[in-house]
Amino acid sequence: MEFGVSIFATDYSMPVTELAPAVEQRGFDVLLFPEHTHIPTSRRSPWPGGPNLPQHYWHTLDPFATSTAAALVTSRLRVGTGICLLVQRDPIITAKEVATVDLLSNGRFLFGIGGGWNLEEMEDHGTNPAQRFKVLRERVLAMKRIWTEEEPEFHGQFVRFEPLWQWPKPVQKPHPPILVGGNGPHVLERVAEYGDVWMPNHGRGPVEARMAELQERAAARGRGPIPVWVFSCPPDPEVVERYQAAGVARCVFGLPSAGADEVLATLDRLDGLAQRFR
């Protein structure tokens, strides 16, 4: 089993240019950054994590700029979005950003995506929440064409463009791994159709019980086994052992949005736990 970490990088937390080398030095191979462009003050959408939304949700940095900063001060660490709210983004611009960061990182970028939970946030970007997973699908498929074709075009319900030129193409072929987040009833079909990894959240639905179904869906599409990474895995050795026994490929632990002393102390504790299972 392998291990990674994620953090809401903010304007008040440990600088990512100091954090990323520390993560790499301790043997973690993945560092992911969540995304929220903003949080509407209405707070109509309930946060899945509890009654009180932490302030780092509206202080978080842009994940592509942050991933670039982390990549430039490391040599092996894989960096990326965990997750990018693609339903709130233009797919042509985002395809350019993904390919650019993949180039600047020398092929170390991971593209985590999801539909999101804050309905009013996506409404501010012009996306109908009821259609977000259809929007997500088309944007992913359109971006794949941009990454892999010299003169891509796309004609869908939500994404439409005539033949275009866009470079750079990603260093990783055919494109950076697409980590599909989520625990909803239809997430496995999304993973099987256009994802490279299923990255469910711990504690928001069954994981082990659905892994066999995921592989069945992949096989039905003529695909090989699809890895499972558990996001927000608790630092509990019994939980990690259970996931390891089930065949989970990677556990991603969360780091606090705090200063260096607290973050590094947490990182050391997580490294001690990970050493037991590496």
Description of the structure:
The protein has 278 residues and is α/β, with parallel strands linked by helices. The longest helix has 17 residues, at 132-148. Helix 2 links the parallel strand 2 and strand 3 (78-84). The protein has helices at residues 16-25, 63-72, 91-104, 119-124, 132-148, 187-194, 208-220, 237-246, 260-275, and strands spanning 2-7, 30-33, 78-84, 109-113, 154-155, 160-161, 178-181, 197-199, 229-231, 250-255. The chain has an eight-stranded parallel β-sheet with strand order 8-7-4-3-2-1-10-9.
Would you spell out the secondary-structure blueprint of this structure?
Elements: E1 2-7, H1 16-25, E2 30-33, H2 63-72, E3 78-84, H3 91-104, E4 109-113, H4 119-124, H5 132-148, E5 154-155, E6 160-161, E7 178-181, H6 187-194, E8 197-199, H7 208-220, E9 229-231, H8 237-246, E10 250-255, H9 260-275
Parallel strand pairs: 1-2, 1-10, 2-3, 3-4, 4-7, 7-8, 9-10
Antiparallel strand pairs: 5-6
Helix pairs in contact: 1-2, 1-9, 2-3, 3-5, 6-7
